[in-house]
Amino acid sequence: MSAGSEETLAVRISRVLADRIVSGRIGPGERLRQDHIAEEFGASHVPVREAFRRLEAQGLAISEPRRGVRVAAFDLPEVREVAEMRAALEELALRHAAPHLTPAILNAAEQATKAGDASRDVRSWEAANRRFHKLIVTPCAMPRLLATIDDLHAASARFLFAAWQSNWETRTDHDHRAILAALRRGDVDTACATLARHVRWIGRRPAPASTGKSDAFAIEG
């Protein structure tokens, strides 16, 4: 197998595992068994190890001496750290993206918001929410910044799933609409300030008791 195909397989494995971790199918502390994963994907250990490194870079897994690779745990300080990082980096990205946002992009972002409002479960809401944020920051054309934001979104989604997987509530995202309104009238400062405040909304609503995760908090944004 060529180096390029190994890399592509590693990306695919890491994405599948990340989705399982984010959705809670693989829980905090669970071991990621290299042999089992290699067998599942019909792969050698090389792309599996690279996939593990990608998960570690995203904060979704940790490597422990003599214990192998495990799904990372998370707590409220980490949730707050992710929210602060996302707020700062997405505001930076939006400032650079704003001059390049077309009516078509803003209309697509509005449709993503409407899809989120219509969502009946946390998975579809999170996908629509992530689509909104990606649409308004991608025109910044800063690949490293966008890659970091993507990793932080994965962490945010994990916290959200932990808090609201079994007790989802439909919601109307007024902040998204305020951001779009500011961008359409050319008020970038207000759009950036609203975005940062929106992402920092954190820790105000603990997970419902029935989830059994009293230390899990949701990031909305």
From TrEMBL:
The keyword Transcription applies. One of its GO terms (molecular function) is DNA binding. Residues 7-74 form the HTH gntR-type domain. Keywords: DNA-binding, Transcription, Transcription regulation. It comes from the Bacteria. Pfam families: FCD, GntR. PROSITE patterns: HTH_GNTR. CDD domains: WHTH_GntR (cd07377). SUPFAM superfamilies: GntR ligand-binding domain-like, Winged helix' DNA-binding domain. The keyword Cytoplasm does not apply. This is GntR family transcriptional regulator.
